[in-house]
Amino acid sequence: MSLLTRRHFVQGAAAGLAAPALLRGARAAEPLKVGFVYLGAIGDYGWTWSHEQGRKALDAALKGQVVTSYVENVKEDASAIPVMKDLAQQGNKLIFTTSFGYMDQTLEAAKQFPDVKWEHCTGFKRADNVGTYNSRFYQGRAVTGTIAGMMSKTATIGYVGSFKIPEVVMGANAFTLAAQAVNPKITTKLVMIDTWFDPAKEAAAAETLANLGCDVIAQHVDSPAVLQVCEKRKIYGFGYGADMSRFAPKSHLTASLNLWGPYYIARATAMLDGTWKPDDAWWGFKEGILGMAPYSKAVPDNVKAAADKIIAGTKDGSYEVFTGPISDQSGKERVPKGERMKDADMLLMDWYVKGVQS
Protein backbone atom coordinates (compact mmCIF):
# COMPACT_ATOMS: atom_id res chain seq x y z
CA MET A 1 0.00 0.00 0.00
CA SER A 2 1.48 3.31 -1.06
CA LEU A 3 1.98 6.18 1.36
CA LEU A 4 -0.77 8.13 -0.41
CA THR A 5 -3.16 5.17 -0.23
CA ARG A 6 -2.33 4.59 3.43
CA ARG A 7 -2.96 8.30 4.16
CA HIS A 8 -6.39 8.13 2.47
CA PHE A 9 -7.20 4.89 4.32
CA VAL A 10 -6.31 6.38 7.72
CA GLN A 11 -8.24 9.58 6.98
CA GLY A 12 -11.28 7.59 5.89
CA ALA A 13 -11.13 5.38 8.97
CA ALA A 14 -10.81 8.41 11.21
CA ALA A 15 -13.78 10.02 9.52
CA GLY A 16 -15.77 6.85 10.03
CA LEU A 17 -14.89 6.75 13.70
CA ALA A 18 -15.74 10.43 14.07
CA ALA A 19 -19.17 10.10 12.49
CA PRO A 20 -20.97 8.79 15.61
CA ALA A 21 -19.35 11.54 17.68
CA LEU A 22 -20.53 14.15 15.19
CA LEU A 23 -24.04 12.73 15.33
CA ARG A 24 -23.97 12.83 19.10
CA GLY A 25 -22.89 16.47 18.91
CA ALA A 26 -25.71 17.23 16.49
CA ARG A 27 -28.21 15.65 18.84
CA ALA A 28 -26.79 17.58 21.80
CA ALA A 29 -27.11 20.80 19.83
CA GLU A 30 -30.82 20.32 19.10
CA PRO A 31 -32.80 23.47 19.98
CA LEU A 32 -34.36 23.78 23.42
CA LYS A 33 -38.12 23.44 23.13
CA VAL A 34 -39.96 26.05 25.19
CA GLY A 35 -43.73 26.07 25.76
CA PHE A 36 -46.11 28.80 26.92
CA VAL A 37 -49.59 28.51 28.43
CA TYR A 38 -51.70 31.63 27.90
CA LEU A 39 -54.86 32.67 29.73
CA GLY A 40 -56.34 34.75 26.92
CA ALA A 41 -55.96 35.30 23.22
CA ILE A 42 -52.70 36.66 21.83
CA GLY A 43 -54.73 39.47 20.27
CA ASP A 44 -56.15 40.82 23.54
CA TYR A 45 -53.69 43.75 23.33
CA GLY A 46 -53.07 43.40 27.03
CA TRP A 47 -51.80 40.64 29.33
CA THR A 48 -51.55 37.72 26.92
CA TRP A 49 -50.40 39.95 24.06
CA SER A 50 -47.49 41.14 26.22
CA HIS A 51 -46.41 37.57 27.01
CA GLU A 52 -46.62 36.75 23.31
CA GLN A 53 -44.28 39.66 22.57
CA GLY A 54 -41.92 38.20 25.17
CA ARG A 55 -42.03 34.82 23.43
CA LYS A 56 -41.23 36.46 20.12
CA ALA A 57 -38.33 38.34 21.73
CA LEU A 58 -36.99 35.00 23.00
CA ASP A 59 -37.22 33.50 19.52
CA ALA A 60 -35.35 36.44 18.03
CA ALA A 61 -32.64 36.59 20.69
CA LEU A 62 -31.86 32.86 20.72
CA LYS A 63 -32.64 32.05 17.11
CA GLY A 64 -31.53 28.53 16.28
CA GLN A 65 -31.07 27.65 19.95
CA VAL A 66 -34.73 27.54 20.93
CA VAL A 67 -38.03 26.48 19.38
CA THR A 68 -41.11 27.90 21.07
CA SER A 69 -44.81 27.12 20.98
CA TYR A 70 -47.90 28.26 22.86
CA VAL A 71 -51.49 27.40 23.72
CA GLU A 72 -53.90 30.29 24.16
CA ASN A 73 -57.30 30.63 25.89
CA VAL A 74 -56.50 28.10 28.62
CA LYS A 75 -58.89 28.28 31.57
CA GLU A 76 -57.65 28.62 35.15
CA ASP A 77 -59.12 25.32 36.29
CA ALA A 78 -58.32 21.59 36.18
CA SER A 79 -58.62 21.61 32.39
CA ALA A 80 -55.26 23.41 32.27
CA ILE A 81 -53.41 20.31 33.52
CA PRO A 82 -53.86 18.23 30.32
CA VAL A 83 -52.70 21.23 28.28
CA MET A 84 -49.52 21.50 30.37
CA LYS A 85 -48.92 17.74 30.21
CA ASP A 86 -49.36 17.78 26.44
CA LEU A 87 -46.69 20.48 26.10
CA ALA A 88 -44.34 18.34 28.19
CA GLN A 89 -45.10 15.25 26.11
CA GLN A 90 -44.28 17.23 22.98
CA GLY A 91 -40.71 17.57 24.26
CA ASN A 92 -40.80 21.05 25.77
CA LYS A 93 -38.18 21.13 28.52
CA LEU A 94 -39.02 24.62 29.76
CA ILE A 95 -42.65 25.64 30.18
CA PHE A 96 -44.01 29.03 31.26
CA THR A 97 -47.52 29.12 32.72
CA THR A 98 -48.51 32.74 32.55
CA SER A 99 -51.35 33.42 34.98
CA PHE A 100 -51.85 33.33 38.76
CA GLY A 101 -54.70 30.81 38.50
CA TYR A 102 -52.39 28.14 37.08
CA MET A 103 -50.43 27.77 40.33
CA ASP A 104 -51.68 24.40 41.61
CA GLN A 105 -52.09 23.00 38.10
CA THR A 106 -48.46 23.81 37.34
CA LEU A 107 -47.31 21.98 40.47
CA GLU A 108 -49.43 18.96 39.57
CA ALA A 109 -48.05 18.77 36.03
CA ALA A 110 -44.51 19.31 37.33
CA LYS A 111 -44.83 16.28 39.62
CA GLN A 112 -45.63 14.11 36.63
CA PHE A 113 -42.77 15.54 34.52
CA PRO A 114 -39.84 16.04 36.90
CA ASP A 115 -37.35 16.33 34.01
CA VAL A 116 -39.16 19.43 32.72
CA LYS A 117 -38.48 22.87 34.18
CA TRP A 118 -41.55 24.96 34.91
CA GLU A 119 -41.98 28.68 35.52
CA HIS A 120 -45.21 30.07 36.98
CA CYS A 121 -46.03 33.74 36.54
CA THR A 122 -47.17 35.74 39.63
CA GLY A 123 -47.35 32.65 41.84
CA PHE A 124 -45.64 31.84 45.13
CA LYS A 125 -45.48 28.04 45.26
CA ARG A 126 -42.25 26.42 44.11
CA ALA A 127 -40.70 22.96 43.79
CA ASP A 128 -37.38 21.49 42.71
CA ASN A 129 -38.41 21.92 39.06
CA VAL A 130 -40.82 24.86 39.49
CA GLY A 131 -39.73 28.49 39.70
CA THR A 132 -41.85 31.62 39.99
CA TYR A 133 -41.54 35.02 38.40
CA ASN A 134 -43.36 38.30 38.70
CA SER A 135 -43.16 41.93 37.69
CA ARG A 136 -43.29 44.82 40.12
CA PHE A 137 -46.40 46.11 38.39
CA TYR A 138 -46.98 48.49 41.29
CA GLN A 139 -43.97 50.55 40.17
CA GLY A 140 -45.85 51.46 37.00
CA ARG A 141 -48.93 52.23 39.09
CA ALA A 142 -46.90 54.79 41.02
CA VAL A 143 -46.16 56.55 37.73
CA THR A 144 -49.77 56.53 36.54
CA GLY A 145 -50.96 57.51 40.01
CA THR A 146 -48.69 60.54 39.95
CA ILE A 147 -50.14 61.57 36.60
CA ALA A 148 -53.71 60.96 37.77
CA GLY A 149 -53.20 62.97 40.93
CA MET A 150 -51.86 65.94 38.99
CA MET A 151 -54.44 65.84 36.19
CA SER A 152 -57.67 65.00 38.01
CA LYS A 153 -59.96 67.99 38.40
CA THR A 154 -62.45 66.24 40.68
CA ALA A 155 -59.89 64.61 43.02
CA THR A 156 -61.87 61.40 42.40
CA ILE A 157 -60.11 58.77 40.37
CA GLY A 158 -61.13 55.22 39.48
CA TYR A 159 -59.65 51.74 39.32
CA VAL A 160 -61.09 48.66 37.61
CA GLY A 161 -59.68 45.54 39.26
CA SER A 162 -60.00 41.85 38.56
CA PHE A 163 -59.61 39.75 41.74
CA LYS A 164 -58.75 40.69 45.29
CA ILE A 165 -55.30 39.10 45.26
CA PRO A 166 -52.10 40.82 46.45
CA GLU A 167 -51.01 41.75 42.93
CA VAL A 168 -54.20 43.70 42.26
CA VAL A 169 -54.56 45.16 45.77
CA MET A 170 -50.95 46.32 45.60
CA GLY A 171 -51.61 48.07 42.30
CA ALA A 172 -54.67 49.93 43.53
CA ASN A 173 -52.82 50.98 46.67
CA ALA A 174 -49.74 52.19 44.80
CA PHE A 175 -51.90 54.13 42.35
CA THR A 176 -53.70 55.82 45.23
CA LEU A 177 -50.63 56.58 47.36
CA ALA A 178 -48.78 58.15 44.43
CA ALA A 179 -51.82 60.26 43.54
CA GLN A 180 -52.24 61.38 47.14
CA ALA A 181 -48.58 62.36 47.30
CA VAL A 182 -49.29 65.14 44.78
CA ASN A 183 -52.89 65.79 45.82
CA PRO A 184 -53.81 64.74 49.40
CA LYS A 185 -57.53 65.15 48.63
CA ILE A 186 -57.52 62.25 46.18
CA THR A 187 -59.89 59.30 46.70
CA THR A 188 -59.97 56.19 44.53
CA LYS A 189 -63.22 54.45 43.63
CA LEU A 190 -62.53 50.73 43.17
CA VAL A 191 -64.69 48.27 41.25
CA MET A 192 -63.70 44.58 41.13
CA ILE A 193 -65.19 42.38 38.39
CA ASP A 194 -63.85 38.90 39.35
CA THR A 195 -62.35 38.15 35.95
CA TRP A 196 -59.19 39.07 34.07
CA PHE A 197 -60.76 39.37 30.65
CA ASP A 198 -64.38 40.22 29.94
CA PRO A 199 -64.74 43.35 27.81
CA ALA A 200 -68.42 43.74 28.64
CA LYS A 201 -67.81 43.63 32.40
CA GLU A 202 -64.78 45.88 32.08
CA ALA A 203 -66.80 48.46 30.16
CA ALA A 204 -69.67 48.30 32.66
CA ALA A 205 -67.24 48.87 35.55
CA ALA A 206 -65.75 51.88 33.77
CA GLU A 207 -69.23 53.32 33.18
CA THR A 208 -69.96 52.93 36.89
CA LEU A 209 -66.78 54.77 37.83
CA ALA A 210 -67.49 57.56 35.37
CA ASN A 211 -70.99 57.92 36.83
CA LEU A 212 -69.42 58.21 40.30
CA GLY A 213 -67.46 61.26 39.17
CA CYS A 214 -64.09 59.70 38.34
CA ASP A 215 -62.30 61.73 35.71
CA VAL A 216 -59.22 59.47 35.44
CA ILE A 217 -59.49 55.67 35.43
CA ALA A 218 -56.80 52.98 35.69
CA GLN A 219 -57.31 49.27 35.13
CA HIS A 220 -55.97 45.88 36.19
CA VAL A 221 -57.88 43.94 33.53
CA ASP A 222 -56.76 42.86 30.13
CA SER A 223 -58.78 44.42 27.31
CA PRO A 224 -58.98 48.02 26.04
CA ALA A 225 -62.70 48.21 26.96
CA VAL A 226 -62.10 50.52 29.94
CA LEU A 227 -60.24 52.98 27.75
CA GLN A 228 -62.93 52.86 25.10
CA VAL A 229 -65.44 53.96 27.74
CA CYS A 230 -63.07 56.74 28.80
CA GLU A 231 -62.90 57.90 25.20
CA LYS A 232 -66.68 57.94 24.93
CA ARG A 233 -67.12 59.72 28.26
CA LYS A 234 -64.31 62.19 27.49
CA ILE A 235 -62.26 61.37 30.58
CA TYR A 236 -58.69 60.12 30.91
CA GLY A 237 -57.40 56.59 31.36
CA PHE A 238 -54.34 54.37 31.31
CA GLY A 239 -53.58 51.21 29.40
CA TYR A 240 -52.32 48.12 31.17
CA GLY A 241 -49.72 45.67 29.92
CA ALA A 242 -49.48 47.29 26.50
CA ASP A 243 -49.81 50.63 24.74
CA MET A 244 -53.58 50.88 24.12
CA SER A 245 -53.56 54.37 22.63
CA ARG A 246 -54.96 53.14 19.32
CA PHE A 247 -58.24 52.36 21.09
CA ALA A 248 -58.55 55.72 22.84
CA PRO A 249 -56.28 58.29 21.17
CA LYS A 250 -57.68 61.23 23.15
CA SER A 251 -58.11 59.53 26.53
CA HIS A 252 -55.04 57.28 26.75
CA LEU A 253 -52.38 59.13 28.79
CA THR A 254 -49.79 56.33 28.98
CA ALA A 255 -49.61 52.67 29.97
CA SER A 256 -47.40 50.49 32.10
CA LEU A 257 -45.79 47.97 29.76
CA ASN A 258 -45.11 44.36 30.64
CA LEU A 259 -41.85 43.53 28.88
CA TRP A 260 -41.37 39.82 29.52
CA GLY A 261 -38.68 39.29 26.89
CA PRO A 262 -35.64 39.92 29.15
CA TYR A 263 -36.87 37.35 31.66
CA TYR A 264 -37.71 34.69 29.09
CA ILE A 265 -34.34 35.13 27.43
CA ALA A 266 -32.51 34.90 30.76
CA ARG A 267 -34.30 31.71 31.81
CA ALA A 268 -33.89 29.97 28.47
CA THR A 269 -30.20 30.91 28.51
CA ALA A 270 -29.92 29.38 31.98
CA MET A 271 -31.40 26.16 30.61
CA LEU A 272 -28.95 26.14 27.72
CA ASP A 273 -25.89 26.68 29.91
CA GLY A 274 -27.07 24.37 32.69
CA THR A 275 -27.48 27.00 35.41
CA TRP A 276 -31.29 26.96 35.72
CA LYS A 277 -32.64 26.68 39.25
CA PRO A 278 -36.10 27.31 40.72
CA ASP A 279 -35.74 31.00 41.48
CA ASP A 280 -38.33 33.41 42.84
CA ALA A 281 -37.81 36.45 40.60
CA TRP A 282 -39.52 39.80 41.13
CA TRP A 283 -38.23 42.27 38.55
CA GLY A 284 -39.25 45.82 37.68
CA PHE A 285 -38.10 49.03 35.99
CA LYS A 286 -34.47 48.42 36.95
CA GLU A 287 -34.30 45.00 35.31
CA GLY A 288 -36.14 46.11 32.17
CA ILE A 289 -39.20 43.90 32.61
CA LEU A 290 -41.40 46.96 33.16
CA GLY A 291 -41.65 50.12 31.07
CA MET A 292 -43.98 52.98 30.18
CA ALA A 293 -45.70 53.81 26.91
CA PRO A 294 -45.11 57.29 25.45
CA TYR A 295 -47.03 60.07 27.16
CA SER A 296 -49.86 61.51 25.14
CA LYS A 297 -50.02 65.14 24.04
CA ALA A 298 -52.60 65.72 26.78
CA VAL A 299 -49.97 65.24 29.50
CA PRO A 300 -48.41 68.65 30.42
CA ASP A 301 -44.62 68.98 30.58
CA ASN A 302 -44.55 69.40 34.36
CA VAL A 303 -46.57 66.20 34.77
CA LYS A 304 -44.24 64.33 32.43
CA ALA A 305 -41.29 65.56 34.49
CA ALA A 306 -42.91 64.38 37.73
CA ALA A 307 -43.63 60.96 36.21
CA ASP A 308 -40.09 60.63 34.87
CA LYS A 309 -38.76 61.48 38.32
CA ILE A 310 -40.72 58.54 39.78
CA ILE A 311 -39.25 56.20 37.17
CA ALA A 312 -35.69 57.42 37.73
CA GLY A 313 -36.05 57.24 41.50
CA THR A 314 -37.43 53.73 41.30
CA LYS A 315 -34.51 52.60 39.17
CA ASP A 316 -31.83 54.10 41.41
CA GLY A 317 -33.56 53.05 44.62
CA SER A 318 -34.23 56.54 45.97
CA TYR A 319 -38.01 56.18 45.61
CA GLU A 320 -40.38 53.52 46.91
CA VAL A 321 -44.12 54.19 46.84
CA PHE A 322 -44.74 51.93 49.84
CA THR A 323 -42.85 54.12 52.30
CA GLY A 324 -44.61 55.08 55.55
CA PRO A 325 -46.55 56.49 57.04
CA ILE A 326 -49.26 54.36 55.41
CA SER A 327 -52.66 53.71 56.99
CA ASP A 328 -55.41 51.37 55.86
CA GLN A 329 -59.08 52.22 55.20
CA SER A 330 -59.88 52.08 58.91
CA GLY A 331 -57.09 54.51 59.77
CA LYS A 332 -54.85 51.86 61.32
CA GLU A 333 -51.18 52.53 60.67
CA ARG A 334 -49.71 49.72 58.59
CA VAL A 335 -46.28 51.16 57.77
CA PRO A 336 -44.53 53.58 60.18
CA LYS A 337 -43.17 56.89 58.98
CA GLY A 338 -39.92 56.57 57.04
CA GLU A 339 -40.07 52.77 56.87
CA ARG A 340 -40.23 50.90 53.58
CA MET A 341 -42.61 48.00 53.36
CA LYS A 342 -40.88 44.62 53.11
CA ASP A 343 -41.33 42.56 49.96
CA ALA A 344 -42.71 39.65 51.98
CA ASP A 345 -45.45 41.88 53.40
CA MET A 346 -46.24 43.41 50.02
CA LEU A 347 -46.70 39.98 48.49
CA LEU A 348 -49.36 39.18 51.09
CA MET A 349 -51.16 42.52 50.88
CA ASP A 350 -54.90 42.04 51.41
CA TRP A 351 -55.88 45.49 52.71
CA TYR A 352 -56.50 48.84 51.04
CA VAL A 353 -54.88 52.14 51.94
CA LYS A 354 -56.84 55.07 53.30
CA GLY A 355 -58.59 56.82 50.42
CA VAL A 356 -59.52 53.66 48.49
CA GLN A 357 -63.29 53.27 48.42
CA SER A 358 -64.23 49.70 47.57
Folded structure, characterized:
Strands 12-10-9-8-6-7-15 form a 7-stranded mixed sheet, with helices on both faces. It is an alpha/beta fold and 358 residues long. A hairpin with a 5-residue loop joins strand 13 (326-327) and strand 14. Helix 3 (80-89) packs parallel to helix 4. 41% of the residues lie in helices and 20% in strands. It has helices at residues 3-28, 47-61, 80-89, 103-112, 137-151, 166-182, 199-211, 225-233, 261-273, 301-316, 343-346; strands at residues 32-37, 66-71, 94-97, 117-121, 130-135, 156-161, 187-192, 216-219, 236-241, 252-258, 280-283, 290-292, 326-327, 333-335, 356-357.
Brief account:
The protein is an alpha/beta fold. The chain has helices at residues 3-28, 47-61, 80-89, 103-112, 137-151, 166-182, 199-211, 225-233, 261-273, 301-316, 343-346, and strands spanning 32-37, 66-71, 94-97, 117-121, 130-135, 156-161, 187-192, 216-219, 236-241, 252-258, 280-283, 290-292, 326-327, 333-335, 356-357.
Number of domains: 2
What shape does the CA trace take? Answer: globular
Radius of gyration of CA atoms, rounded to a whole number:
24 Å
CATH 2nd-level architecture of the largest domain = 3-Layer(aba) Sandwich
| First and last CA, distance | 94 Å
**Rounded mean pLDDT score:** 93
Order of H and E elements: HEHEHEHEEHEHEHEHEEHEEHEEHE
DSSP strand tally: 15
Write the layout of secondary structure elements.
Layout: H1 3-28, E1 32-37, H2 47-61, E2 66-71, H3 80-89, E3 94-97, H4 103-112, E4 117-121, E5 130-135, H5 137-151, E6 156-161, H6 166-182, E7 187-192, H7 199-211, E8 216-219, H8 225-233, E9 236-241, E10 252-258, H9 261-273, E11 280-283, E12 290-292, H10 301-316, E13 326-327, E14 333-335, H11 343-346, E15 356-357
Parallel strand pairs: 1-2, 1-3, 3-4, 4-5, 5-11, 6-7, 6-8, 7-15, 8-9, 9-10
Antiparallel strand pairs: 10-12, 13-14
Helix pairs in contact: 2-9, 3-4, 5-6, 5-10, 7-8
